[in-house]
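User: quick one, sequence for these tokens?
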């Protein structure tokens, strides 16, 4: 299996690419290629061109959740692909808001009909789905901890009343490798512990090999951050490449704990398993 970071917050590689607050990861498995999220904007197309990624032969897009920083490049990618299957939870189009750094709309920036009119074919996913052998879309992640996934800064409107976003649509990917399960997270709003425990249950493999992608640890409250880091320490992971909403503080802490097993997954980084 191969993974390439197409869009992310940071750029470390000296090639003609750009970063932005957002995430997009290309995954190749069993000769099939999927794009997990599309970054924040059309700028993803510049990176796709610089990295010589052929969108015409892509087998599909998977959307981790409806936030703008994971879906903002969707229109440009659908257009450039000439029509494509998009696997996502039906709730990715709900209106959602964030309070930090200032109160604003942070949901999907496109209407479903507009995307369909340019070739998007939405495939609803709610339950776990094995999209190709040994690569699972998580589907809805059951909440087993009581301290994860309750970010007061992220909300939806119920009439005029603010309600904490429950993120039923938050998906991760679970890849079964020889050494265990690799979890590919978008923003991990469902909570890293909930997601990793769900990955074991869905795949039937008890050993987590590693994590790549957005973990939201750096943006979560103190209790959540401390308990998640304790949990991750105990796992004795073989591979870590958290990026995006993990935050540089947490990335530095994980580097100190995991040393060579911890990789920086900036734009253009690629990994083979
Ligand atoms: Fe998010
Ligand atoms: Fe995000």
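Assistant:
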């Amino acid at each position: 299996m191969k993974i390439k970071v197409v869009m992310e917050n940071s750029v470390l590689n000296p090639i003609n690419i750009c970063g932005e607050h957002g995430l997009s990861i290309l995954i190749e498995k069993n000769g099939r290629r999927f794009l997990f999220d599309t970054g924040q904007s059309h700028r993803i197309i510049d990176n796709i061109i610089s990295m010589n990624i052929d969108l015409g032969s892509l087998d599909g897009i998977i959307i981790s959740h409806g936030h703008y920083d994971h879906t903002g490049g969707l229109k440009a990618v659908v257009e450039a692909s000439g029509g494509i299957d998009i696997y996502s939870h039906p709730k990715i189009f709900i209106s959602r808001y964030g309070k930090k750094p200032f109160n604003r709309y942070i949901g999907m920036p496109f209407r479903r009909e507009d995307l369909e009119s340019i070739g998007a074919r939405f495939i609803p996913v709610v339950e776990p789905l094995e999209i190709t052998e040994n690569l699972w879309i998580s589907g809805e992640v059951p909440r087993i901890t009581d301290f994860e996934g309750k970010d007061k800064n992220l909300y939806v409107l119920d009439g005029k009343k603010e309600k904490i976003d429950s993120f039923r649509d938050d998906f991760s990917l679970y890849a079964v490798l020889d050494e265990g399960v690799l979890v590919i997270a978008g923003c991990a709003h469902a909570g890293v512990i909930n997601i990793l425990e769900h990955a074991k249950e869905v795949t039937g493999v008890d050993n987590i090999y590693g994590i790549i992608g957005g973990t939201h640890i750096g943006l979560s409250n103190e209790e959540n951050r401390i308990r998640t880091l304790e949990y991750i320490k105990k796992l004795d992971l073989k591979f870590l490449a958290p990026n995006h909403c993990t935050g540089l503080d947490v990335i530095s802490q994980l580097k100190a704990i995991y040393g060579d097993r911890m990789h920086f997954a900036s734009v253009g980084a690629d990994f083979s398993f």
